[in-house]
Design brief:
The chain has 348 residues and is an alpha/beta fold. 43% of the residues lie in helices and 14% in strands. The protein contains 14 helices and nine strands. The chain has a five-stranded parallel β-sheet, sandwiched between helices. The chain has a four-stranded parallel β-sheet with strand order 1-7-8-9. Helix 2 packs parallel to helix 4 and helix 12 packs across helix 14.
């Protein structure tokens, strides 16, 4: 059976507001995870401790429901209550299982709930307007925000206001990030000018630190080298993915196409595919292009889509300056995830 070849550059998906909201669930990769399926590293006690903290938090949310008081409601409307923290924030490096644990929390809590990345929530506001987003999410018991980060002043003000309004409605929030909440925005913009908003986002979280090395490389071989040429790429596609749907694109054309597709539609952009193949991967030297590519990498990782490629290896897809700059955590995460997907293609 021949492989079904498609091209991402020929896709221009349209996604309704209802479809966007319906998509706020853990990705297929984390669709059936639980606290029991998380495997703490015995050499990192903080990982097992994080599981215990989240199980206790889930029990509190389940017991109190949406009426238990919001994350910031006490901050703006009275004294902080004693006892269990009103919000929880998982801080840790790349690949230590923060998303697995956040998804486990989502699965453990009953009732209406939302799960998405920080970028997906900001995109949701862009698609629905701020008021419609609040009206939709304030009916939820729990809102989970994965990969929380502040990239610019607009995001800071937006998320500060959004989380305050959700908390006032009694919604519990949980987040993951590679940055402590009080340090959000550092190295990206004049964060000192937005300390009030940043403090609103951080002051009542219980921060749970998760230590450990990137599990995607723990005891695993290095990522495979890119294929030598287009002929080898085509042969590998047929060898590994015969009879399946594969999107094959020239890398330059792909990154140009991403500028014409809103990031909120990247999930729909890759819908129905079984694998990805890129010709001529090169180092991206423009920050705006690189940040869009990071969003695509996240969506590909969510769908667990293997990647075959020619050109430079994925640890060189961003410039050295980018890897050392204010967005370095985003870029390191993207490299880690792309590397994992390249390894999966090699093992397919």
């Amino acid at each position: 059976m021949s492989t079904q070849i498609e091209h991402l550059v020929e896709r221009d998906p349209r996604v309704s507001a209802d479809e966007l909201l319906a998509g706020f669930t853990p990705s297929e990769r984390f669709g059936e995870v639980s606290f029991d399926t998380y495997r703490p590293d015995p050499s990192q006690p903080s990982q097992a401790q994080a599981v215990e903290k989240l199980q206790a938090f889930a029990a509190g949310v389940s017991g109190g429901g949406a009426s238990g008081g919001g994350l910031f409601s006490k901050l703006f409307g009275g004294q902080k209550s004693s006892g269990a923290a009103q919000g929880i924030y998982l801080d840790g490096g790349f690949g230590v299982g923060k998303t697995h644990l956040l998804a486990s929390l989502w699965h453990a809590v009953p009732g209406p709930k939302a799960f998405g990345t920080f970028v997906e929530y900001t995109n949701l506001v862009g698609a629905l307007t701020f008021r419609r987003t609040v009206d939709a999410l304030k009916e939820y018991t729990l809102v989970c925000i994965d990969e929380f980060e502040l990239d610019d002043p607009g995001d800071t003000v937006l998320m500060s206001r959004l989380m305050r309004e959700l908390a006032d409605a009694g919604v519990k929030l949980a987040a993951t990030s590679n940055t402590l909440p009080g340090s959000l925005g550092e190295g990206r913009f004049a964060a000192q000018d937005f300390q009030r908003e940043i403090q609103v986002l951080s002051s009542q979280f219980e921060v749970v630190r998760i230590d450990g090395e990137d599990y995607r490389h723990r005891g695993l071989p290095d990522a495979p080298s890119p294929l030598p040429d287009d002929a080898a790429l085509d042969a590998a596609v047929e060898q590994h993915f015969a009879g399946r749907r594969v999107a094959i694109d020239d890398f330059d054309a792909l990154v140009e196409h991403l500028s014409r597709v809103h990031p909120s539609r990247y999930r729909a952009l890759i819908e129905g595919l079984d694998a990805i193949a890129w010709r001529g991967v090169r180092t991206i030297d423009q920050q705006a292009v690189a940040l869009r590519f990071v969003v695509l990498a996240d969506r590909l990782y969510d769908r667990d889509l293997p990647i075959l490629s020619t050109g430079v290896p994925f640890d060189r897809v961003f410039t050295e300056e980018m890897m050392a700059g204010g967005y370095q955590k985003k870029y390191y995460r993207a490299v880690s995830r792309l590397t994992a997907l390249a390894r999966e293609a090699d093992e397919a």
